Amino acid sequence: MKKTVLCGMGLLCLAGTVCADTGGRLLATGGVTNIEGSAGGGIVPWAVLSGYGARGEWGGDAFATRVDTGDYRLDAFGASLAFNNRVELSVARQRLDMDALTKAAGLPHKSLNQDILGVKLRLFGDLVYDRLPQVAVGAQYKRQTNFLIPSLVGARRDSDTDYYLAGSRLFLGAVGGYNLLVNGTLRYSRANETGLLGFGGDRRDSRTLLKEGSVALLLNPRWVVGVEYREKPDNLSFAGESDWQDVFVGYFPSKRLALAAAWAELGEIATLEGQRGIFLSMQLSY
């Protein structure tokens, strides 16, 4: 019996048919890469690992993402490496261009930047074949590289580490015969706007437990649609920080290439409200 399965913001293939192009894991089992460099959804890390390496094998990804709201443009790029389908190492760079805010407020810089080093460890379970969901723990060390503006608005530090626990599970034929993937992530963080505005603030300088999640529906072996949600902290009094959500579509023509697009609702970012726009991402895998 052939089974169609889904993973992260991506999908697996029809077993024994379209997966025959290469060895290792099935098509899209690493999902896409989120804006901080970890495998999973576009804005939420999942319990899946990057690339296509199975037991005793290496795998990895390189990615580039752009989110444009008109007032802001976020560019993220990086790479990851995974071994044994057990541990993942990642590196990413984020750049937030903010020409509109710079002109309106007379700020000294036109962009905010940060570097991210990540590690993820699969603890137990399997997305499909185990009675338990696939569960992974991860850490993301972040360093904001031009801290003047964050310090002026109340951020307490220019570097910090996020910790998260993610669980992913595929339910076969759950919605009208289509497969449904559900992921939940708990993040322990004090990052302002993922860390682009530094860490901690004048309102609160301690880490808080934040909820993240995604639901994805497989339409056919290469296409998936779904939604994501990411809770954000509110550490700075100069501006509110809104939770993020998106509606996405992913396309996986082969094991080497993944494309994703989304409509992202980002709310208020650094005093500018109603931030929403297109999310585009491309990933090369092996």
What number of structural domains do the residues give? Answer: 1
Number of helices: 2
The coarse silhouette is: globular
The residue-averaged pLDDT reads 88
CATH architectural designation = Beta Barrel
Distance between the termini: 28 Å
Largest sheet: 12 strands, antiparallel, barrel
Report the count of strand segments. 16
For the biggest β-sheet, the strand order reads 5-6-7-8-9-10-11-12-13-14-15-16
CATH class label = Mainly Beta
Detail the poorly predicted runs. Answer: 1-23
Looking at CATH, the homologous superfamily is: monomeric porin ompg
Percent of residues in helices comes to under 10%
What is the ordering of alpha helices and beta strands? EEEEEEEHEEHEEEEEEE
Radius of gyration: 18 Å
* CATH topology annotation: Porin
Question: Strand percentage, roughly?
Answer: over 45%
What is the structural class?
Answer: mainly beta
Keywords: Signal
InterPro entries: DUF3034
Protein name: DUF3034 family protein
Pfam families: DUF3034
What does this structure look like?
The structure is a single chain. The protein has 286 residues and is mainly beta. It has a single domain (32-285), classed as Porin (Beta Barrel). Helix content is 4%, strand content 55%. It has helices at residues 99-105, 148-152, and strands at 4-7, 10-14, 32-33, 39-40, 58-68, 73-83, 87-97, 111-124, 134-144, 159-175, 178-189, 208-220, 223-230, 244-251, 257-269, 272-285. The strands form three sheets. Strands 5-6-7-8-9-10-11-12-13-14-15-16 form a twelve-stranded antiparallel β-barrel. The longest helix has 7 residues, at 99-105. 45% of the residues are buried.
